[in-house]
Design brief:
This protein has 450 residues and is α+β, with helices and mostly antiparallel strands. It has a domain at 1-72 and 315-348: 2-Layer Sandwich (Uridine Diphospho-n-acetylenolpyruvylglucosamine Reductase, domain 2), CATH 3.30.43.20. The protein is 52% helix and 10% strand. The chain has helices at residues 11-20, 22-33, 53-61, 71-77, 87-97, 103-107, 110-121, 132-149, 154-171, 174-181, 190-216, 224-230, 241-272, 274-285, 293-297, 300-312, 345-348, 365-368, 389-406; strands spanning 37-41, 45-50, 64-65, 129-131, 322-323, 328-330, 333-335, 340-343, 407-411, 419-422, 425-428, 433-438. The strands form 4 sheets. It has a 5-stranded mixed sheet with strand order 1-2-8-5-3. The protein has a 3-stranded antiparallel sheet with strand order 4-12-9. The longest helix has 32 residues, at 241-272. The protein binds protoporphyrin IX containing FE. Protoporphyrin IX containing FE is lined by residues 82-83, 94, 101, 250-251, 254-255, 258-259, 262, 315-316, 319-320, 378-382, 384-388, 391-392.
Length: 450
């Protein structure tokens, strides 16, 4: 089988170059080999990378992702995760998981998200330096825990938050993640053993929650867990505990760190350009003192700003990989069944013919025109498109609005903040800090909700 040309050299060397500098690696390959090229990865083999809208369209119409051979995801999430299902089972699981994160069901969380943001900001002191990623992780994890498990039994909830937080922290550490791709490292890796222990703690907590939820058996409980416990498929079968556990893990992994990363970038862009900050503040002020979350979510400039943030450094830099089922022509190359393809979200978002002056951060571009579902792809696309897309945008807007109504966040210096790879995410440096400034009196920040 002939594949599109691509960088030469051993798979392990290509992989280590990509690990060190993923944007440099794909940009260089794109320059040298064009829109469609092949990259080689140890344990995964050749992978065709695409980014032009036509090829992205083909990518999104491929019926399957590269599973069930997708060992890393299986180990991380469990084999029953929606990410690993295919065909009718995948469709059915999406039907179950989508409603709480879309449409009117989603909007009932608006006020809770604003309150959780206010609660986090209440701990800030005027003049204090805060680690942006830590704050955003805390808020987005709290949001996800509340939606999935609800608010009852706060002692247990604290423990669950610690267990999930520890698991997520380890999922972002290379020493714990490398053995996912290179299984021979597992018996000797300290990071791997720690992540296994953290996973067992999460599992104990998840199964305890599942048991109690089944015992409550409350048809009006508005949590995702209750919905999963009560759901039946077309044949009337209920999900097993293990299936529910795997979806809980999936929602925890997929549902908060990406959003926290996008929010960290958003804080950076607002801190860098006072005109953008002023424009957002003007929009927020126009809604009065206690804005309706739905009205906040519809503010046009805030919306454009969130989109440009996701375009510029997409938190998830690669889509899930698809596998070619029937021979297909992509980017002028005939790809045979079994070929694995990846969409480079970063390259797709830096195409000058789609985004003029692509290296400029300019939210206005999203007010001037609409981009198609193969041009703007931070949430992937097709039948695998992120189920949390609408929710993540809603959450980003409310959290940033909540923080801006409580305080100002100033950058510590004017050095450009460069992206770092954190596992598969494109994130600001882990140590990114800002200084909190009270909007009026010093001391604990006076808050809108007080
Ligand atoms: C800014 C935040 C987020 C970004 C950038 C993001 C990005 C992505 C991307 C790129 C994919 C792969 C889609 C594809 O390959 O076509 C995906 C899938 C997924 N995301 Fe998100 N996501 C975000 C937030 C969320 C949230 C809040 C949830 C939870 C509700 C979530 C749950 C999922 C799930 C379950 C899948 C797998 C869908 C499937 O296999 O059918 N994501 N996301």
């Amino acid at each position: 089988m002939t594949l599109p040309d691509g960088p030469k050299g051993l798979a392990i060397l290509q992989f280590s170059k990509w690990l060190r500098d993923p944007l440099g690696f794909v940009s260089q390959a794109h320059k040298q080999f064009g829109d469609t090229f092949t990259m080689r990865l140890p344990g995964i083999g050749p992978m065709v990378i695409v980014s032009d809208p036509q090829a992205v369209k083909q990518l999104f119409t491929q019926p399957e992702i590269a599973s069930p051979g997708d060992e890393e995801l299986k180990v991380l999430l469990g084999e029953n995760s929606v990410l690993l299902l295919s065909g009718a089972a995948h469709k059915e699981r999406r039907r179950l998981l989508m409603p709480p994160f879309n449409g009117s069901r989603m909007t009932i969380w608006g006020q809770a998200i604003l309150d959780m943001t206010t609660e986090a900001a209440q701990n800030f002191m005027d003049g204090e330096r805060i680690n942006v990623r830590d704050v955003m992780q805390e808020i987005t994890l709290n949001v996800m825990l509340q939606i999935v498990f609800g608010t009852h039994d706060s002692g247990r909830r604290q423990q669950l938050r610690r267990d999930v937080g520890d698991r997520m922290l380890l999922a972002s550490k290379m020493s714990a993640v490398l053995p996912l791709w290179l299984p021979f490292l597992r018996p000797i890796s300290k990071g791997w053993k720690e992540s296994q222990r953290a996973e067992q703690a999460c599992d104990r907590a998840f199964y305890a929650e599942i048991n109690e939820c089944r015992a409550r058996n409350d048809p009006d409980e508005p949590t995702v867990l209750a919905m999963l416990c009560q759901a039946t498929d077309e044949t009337g079968r209920k999900l097993s505990d293990v299936e529910i556990r795997d979806e809980l893990m999936t929602l925890m992994v997929a549902g908060h760190e990406n959003t926290a990363t996008a929010l960290s970038w958003l804080v950076y862009w607002l801190g860098r350009d006072p005109r953008m900050l002023e424009r957002v503040r003007e929009e927020l002020t126009s809604l009065g003192d206690a804005p309706d979350p739905m009205a906040l979510a519809k503010l046009p400039y805030l919306d454009a700003l969130c989109h440009e943030t996701l375009r510029y450094y997409p938190p998830v830099m690669l889509t899930m990989r698809r596998i070619v089922k029937d021979p297909v022509e992509i980017g002028g190359h005939r790809l045979e069944p079994g070929t694995k393809i990846w969409g480079s979200v970063y390259l797709a978002h830096r195409r000058a013919e789609v985004y003029p002056d692509p290296d400029a951060f300019r939210p206005e571009r999203f007010l001037e025109r609409k981009f198609s579902q193969t041009e703007f792809i931070p949430f992937g696309g097709g039948h695998r498109r992120c189920i949390g897309m609408a929710f993540a945008l809603f959450e980003m807007k409310l959290i940033i609005a909540g923080l801006l109504s409580a305080c100002d966040l100033e950058l510590l210096d004017d050095k450009p903040l460069l992206p770092k790879r954190r596992t598969g995410l494109l994130a600001p440096d882990i140590g990114f800090e800002v200084r909190v400034r009270a909007k009026s009196a010093p001391g604990p920040i006076p808050l809108a909700a007080e």
